[in-house]
Specification:
By secondary structure, the chain is α+β, with helices and mostly antiparallel strands. Helices cover 19% and strands 39% of the residues. The protein has helices at residues 81-89, 94-100, 146-161, 165-176, and strands at residues 3-8, 15-24, 29-35, 38-46, 54-57, 62-72, 107-115, 117-122, 128-129, 132-137, 195-205, 211-217, 229-233.
């Protein structure tokens, strides 16, 4: 996952998340589905290490991770995707889970976990509470990539012009899947011969706590892999 934008308590929707996962095309992946080991959860799975890049649970508990270039240990060690799957199936609060991670054990990451409160954690930076509009990519902490501004600004405008969750999700998927022919620090939708955007995902939680999860997957060179899939998850009650 290499671009994540979030609006938390910034509109009539308590949470709107729009994200792209960029990965090697050859890495084995199962797209978003109801997890066999926890039917409360919807999300993709990494078939090599067993973790996930983005998942949501009934009631709105969610987690998402990006890699970070040239930060943390060398590739290897525990999978960053396990940070997502461990949180999503557990019961620790975001403010308890995020500080408990030994950042030095992992290759570079940005992790976002939410369950009411939403926090951001990377390998070496303090836990950061997220309110309002927020976005990250896979740039190192402190580095500024213009596509982060683009994603945050587009999210704010999309929320303003769309009244329904379905329309908002479609608008955001269009943004996430549009290549701009720009350098990597400005490119939202990435394509190359071996690596690129593998999925675009939108999560919207409404005032009743119901969750809309929409995902579009892509194959080689950004070709759409079937139609977008949609899941509706009920609130906790």
């Amino acid at each position: 996952m290499c671009l994540i934008s979030i609006a938390h308590n910034a509109s009539k929707f308590p949470l709107v998340l729009a994200a792209n996962r960029d990965e090697l095309y050859a890495r084995p992946t199962r797209p978003a589905h109801e997890w066999d080991d926890d039917p409360r959860v919807i999300g993709g799975r990494d078939l090599r290490a067993g973790g996930s890049w983005l998942a949501v649970r009934k009631g709105g508990r969610f987690a998402a991770v990006t890699n970070v270039r040239r930060v943390g240990r060398e590739e290897g060690g525990p999978s960053r995707g396990l940070l997502v799957s461990e949180f999503i199936r557990g019961d620790d609060s975001p403010t308890a889970y995020a500080p408990s991670i030994r950042g030095e054990d992992y290759a570079g990451f940005h992790l976002i976990v939410g369950d009411g409160d939403i926090v951001h954690r990377s390998n070496a930076t303090p836990v950061e509470s997220i309110e309002g509009l927020f976005a990250i990519s896979n740039a190192p902490p402190g580095a500024h990539w213009p596509k982060v501004d683009l994603a945050r600004e587009y999210l704010a405008l999309a929320i303003q012009r769309n009244k329904s969750a379905d329309d908002l999700a479609d608008d955001l998927l269009c943004f996430l899947s549009t290549p701009r022919g720009a350098p990597i620090d400005r490119e939202v939708f990435v394509t190359s011969s071996a690596y690129g955007t593998r999925s675009s995902t939108v999560i919207i939680i409404d005032a009743d706590g119901e969750v809309l999860f929409v995902e579009q997957n892509y194959g080689l060179k950004g070709v759409r892999d079937g139609a977008a899939v949609r899941f509706q998850l009920p609130s906790r009650s």
